[in-house]
Amino acid sequence: MDTPEPLLASRPLLRAEDARIAVDDVVAVDRLTLETHGDRVLFVGEVDELFAALTGVPLASRARRGGSDERPGQARVVGGTLLVAGKSVVGGAHLASVGAAPLDPPLPATWTTEHYVAWSARLAGASSSSARELASQALTRVGLAASRRRAIGSLALPERRALILAHAVATSPEVVIAEAPLSGLDGASADFVLSAIAAVTEGRGAILSSARLDPSAPESVLSRGASQVVVLLGGEIALEGAPSDIFAGATIYGLTVRANVEPFREELAARGIALKGGPQRFSAALPEGSTTREILAAARASKAAIVELVPLL
User: Fold this and answer.
1) Where in the chain is the domain with CATH 3.40.50.300?
2) Contacts of 240 (CB under 8 A, 6+ apart)
3) Phi, psi for residue 308 in degrees, rounded to 5
4) Helices 128-141 and 157-169 meet at what angle, rounded to 10?
5) CATH of 14-246 given 3.40.50.300, 3.30.450.40, 3.40.50.1820, 2.60.40.10
């Protein structure tokens, strides 16, 4: 399988300018503005709607959450600009150069893994004979070479995650987008999928997601290996930067602030605490020796209305 040329340094992997994403006509992300750096970006937090728009896979096609049959549908960019490797997400223009690995989509249980990946290659334009070869190469890459004749219904969760990654890169896309590939995994299961992620992201751009920044969780490997980490809360960027800056030893909290943001920012700065993000969702990094009491004291002094305060790291 050919490896794509690395992304040009002058072309951001993802760029958003006042991007607005709606799900079933309800705005979920409003005025997202971001330009990423490097070729491996990790999004953390509340990213479902963004990844549904990037992958083109409806939220209703994901694994059920909470056992409800009432699941939202398609996420669409309805305003502003959202580009992946310079190609617009509006209308799906980016999909020709993107390999999508959504979180636990429904799979045909009776198909073999080889048939599934080969069919993915066929849908991307490969001939029948080329598709089989591409499928074999992709399955080998993710550690499923010995499982090419197995029915998908017999695969364990880590193997299904690896299969989706193989499907995503069967035709050597410029960018792979993998949604929460380590969700719910630990130990040897997480290690297996991490190996598959390393294999499919080598030499190409990667946009990944994880639920949290917990340094004790397997997902921390994704964050520490990223060129940039972006934390989204409530459709807003609460924190973004290089892993070396984010994992500098500070304790980071996510906040939702409804009133008196600027006086609150000034009170925090006087205590040596920087408030990042906005306009309503923020992050605050507590220096060594500081506690959340400092945040609450700054809120009282500025009469800021904090309605949420949760640890991010």
Assistant:
1) 14-246
2) 34, 228, 229, 230, 231, 276
3) -155, 140
4) 130
5) 3.40.50.300
Q: How confident is the model at residue 4 (pLDDT cuts 50, 70, 90)?
A: very low
Q: Determine the Cα–Cα distance for residues 107 and 117; give it in Å rounded to an integer.
A: 11
Beta bridge partners of 127: none
| pLDDT one-digit tens code per residue, 162-220 | 999 999 999 999 999 999 999 999 999 999 999 999 999 999 999 999 988 777 788 88
CATH class name, domain 251-311 = alpha beta
Cα 121 from chain centroid (whole Å): 24
The predicted pLDDT at position 5 comes to: 47
Q: What is the dihedral of CA 147, 152, 154, 156, to 10 degrees?
A: 80
